[in-house]
Amino acid sequence: MHNDNQQHQRKWKPFQAIAAGLLLACGAQASASVTNPAIGQLLWSEEFNGNSVDSATWTAQDGNGCQINLCGYGNAELQYYSPNNASISTVPFESGTRALAIRAQRQTVGGNSFTSARLDTKGKVQVQYGMIEIRMSTPPLGTGLWPAAWMLGVSPQTWPRNGEIDIMEMGHKASSRAASGAPSPDRFTASNVITWQQAACVPGNESCAASTAWQTKNWVVPPTSLANRFVLYRMYWLDNEMRFTVVDNGVERNMYDAPLPVNSTALQAPFYLLLNMAVGGNFTDAASPAQVTSSLPATMYVDYVRVYQLDGKGSVKLGNQTLPEVGKFGVFTDNTAVNSKLVAGTSSDIFLWNGASSGAGNTAPYEGSNVIAWNYTAPGQWFGGGVQARQARDLSNFRNGTVKFRIKIPANVSFNIGVGDTYTNQNWVNFPANTTAYGLVRNGDWAQGSIPVSTLIGPSVALQSMLDVFMISSDANRLSASAFQFAIDDIVWDAGSSGGSTNPPPSSGPTSVSQLSATTLQFTTTTGSWADVHYTVNNGPQQNIRMRLDGSTNTYVAGGLKIGDVVRYSFTYWDTARNFAVDSAQQSYIMK
Question: Residue 322, Cβ neighbours under 10 Å: how many?
Fold first, then answer.
């Protein structure tokens, strides 16, 4: 293990990834351990050496949580997060070091008595497995300051189903520090992992959030105050276990007495990074501005964030990983030919919302071997359920298409079909009893409905970020007076005859594609300098190719294609006029 001061002296920028969607990964070895780790190559780093915070990597929050209908960010926090409170600065207590500076101060903004900063890499940098190392310092905390370096799962599912990993946080309540014997807030640092667990679904904890820190030793009490000096915080993360440590003056100490088992699929998915310093809130002993005793202004510094290979595992994805679906998108289907589809239990979950009124049915599938079959057993009560994607889906190509589904339900049952996005917007359309609507013939047998997407999404649902891709519910005004069974099958979003994506027209700008034959596609840039193309075929492995430069034009011809193949592509090129690299937007082309 490296002494943290020695590690700092090796501070450098060995890798700078600029291609949106680029994947940096290493394969797994046969034996993996977080207690005797084999640290491999550096996969990604943010060194904070520039003149300002890199907006291509970090997004600075601007608000107090009310802007996302979560005032106080769910913790009754007292600060307003302002981008003005984050900067790249020279560290006053370590000569020659530049670092991210997050500054908290007494300043009234938006009705809040304090301001601070919070940065995240959502949609820009996503990490899955490896060893994450953060070199940071905290100011004297007093009562009220709450610095943290943490991660949230990229899944659009609501917290805590998406998972939360707190690599470090300080500023705990005195009662939370009591068992440690720590003499002050500056000599207590801890970590935590929060997931959804069925066993945690008890009265008073309706979110079912399960914390590994609950009644568990999860801290380190350093020999001296952590105020205004750097230490290393490390998380060792594999698909079966996790370990959190602090490296202080060359000594590495475990937060937990033993590695944590990975007991949730949420912890086996990508996460994005967050750095912030809150003021007050439920985590601290400052519930009101008057209870904040911290000496302000105060600054936490982050020298760097690095992600290393761990025992052959680890990946970093750059850019927005939500690619637009095209053609036919299967929500729940076995045999229908689709471009891509969800698989229950793997990429989607099927939810039955009211177990008091409904349970499993025994209707045979319409096609294939799988069916969503429910038995409504409580006349007069509501029913509902749906298919939820585990990752956000971009269905913007389907705006002029239809959602088709097969359903077997008694003709005298009125019901609604709906969809929802990751921003909590929903919309529903009604299928009245004993009426043919959206092509659905109500005769009690299997029949097909076909709803125009423009009608189904209504005025507010965001197709570019879909979560609930199919929902069914009872009609609140016409609840069924008798028990019945119903089943749904072969649910498909269909973009129509265009195949789900209008191929881009010949471009007059710096990037374009052109189909040379039934098996070849040419990528072109006219930037006058180097350019890379990044592309996938039918959601396969991404290819990253340096294009050939002739004069001012770069070209690359992809071969081995066939009619109907979906090629998703983007470019990274050097803009000679602006003197920096540019990532183009993701686009799709369907071979004709």
Answer: 18
Closest CA to 534 of 26, 18, 19: 19
16: CB partners within 8 A, 6+ apart = none
In the DSSP assignment, the letter for residue 238 is -
Spatial CA neighbour of 406 closest among 431, 371, 437, 434: 371
SS (H, E, C) 500-565: CCCCCCCCCCCEEEEECCCCCEEEEECCCCCEEEEEEECCCCCEEEECEEECCEEEEEECCCCCCC
Secondary element (H or E) of residue 146? strand 145-153
What pLDDT does residue 171 have? Answer: 96
Q: How far apart are CA 525 and CA 548, in angstroms?
A: 10
Sign of the alpha-carbon torsion through 62, 67, 70, 71: positive
pTM beyond 0.85, yes or no: no
pLDDT band, very low/low/confident/very high, at 527 (cuts 50, 70, 90)? confident
Tokens linked to 416 = 């609604």
What's the whole-number average pLDDT of the chain? 88
The first and second tokens of residue 586, run together, are: 């993701």
State how far the Cα of 197 lies from the Cα of 354, in Å rounded to an integer: 19
Position 576 scores a pLDDT of: 78
For residue 505, what pLDDT is reported?
A: 52
